[in-house]
Amino acid sequence: MSFAGPSMGSASRTARKTLEFGRTHVVRPKGKHQATVVWLHGLGDNGSSWSQLLETLPLPNIKWICPTAPTQSITLFGGFPSTAWFDVADLSEEALSDLEGLDASAAHVANLLSTEPTDIKLGIGGFSMGAATALYSATCAVEGKFGNGNPYPVNVSAVVGLSGWLPCARSLKNKVEGSQEAAGRAASLPIMLCHGKGDDVVQYQHGAKSAEVLRSTGFQKLTFKTYDRLGHYTIPEEMEEVCSWLTTNLGLDGSPS
């Protein structure tokens, strides 16, 4: 799965409106449909590659939705176009965030989840830039609104981020602590972050810092897994732990009673 990063905006407001999301790939549940998870790829990748991996996981009760990001010019690449959830200038939690792009992608994710049956648990996950977008979506769900003030429309039950970082980390604490409702949602939302100490694309320190910010903001159900020799990719051990965590936190058949 390709590498991913954060975002700044080089695209103009007019240009942004013309961006179109790519093809969405869906992996149907092989068993009883209990949860739907939108999974977001990394920078330069597409939904197809992740759908092929997710289809092999022993999670028969999950429906996976794997959208493809718009193709847009990327500041990190000197303006060269790539599939990306938002524009990026630097791959870290300290980067200036492309709020317009983040909001657009988070809204796209929420729209994909909004048509699921009401008795289905909803989750968001991703790799690298996809993980950053998933975490941004988590903060919107907790605040009850997107960065632009529009209401966030779905209830998210679990969030997974692999080899990523937390956009808008600096402003998160004030937003959550300023609202009793947001603080309550933060305390009850399960989040799993995984990061390799050998990651040379999104440095391990950025993943660790993101976990630290989330914990200090009141995300009490945060799990942070580290892997000593893991670079910017996934390994079976990591995916096995993700499967176990999702089974438990989404209350899937087979979870411990």
TrEMBL record:
Pfam families: Abhydrolase_2
Residue stretches making up the Phospholipase/carboxylesterase/thioesterase domain: 25-248
InterPro entries in the cross-refs: AB_hydrolase_fold, PLipase/COase/thioEstase
Molecular function in Gene Ontology: hydrolase activity
Transmembrane intervals: none
Superkingdom of the source species: Eukaryota
PANTHER family: ALPHA/BETA-HYDROLASES SUPERFAMILY PROTEIN
Name the UniProt record assigns to this protein: Phospholipase/carboxylesterase/thioesterase
Organism: Macleaya cordata (Five-seeded plume-poppy)
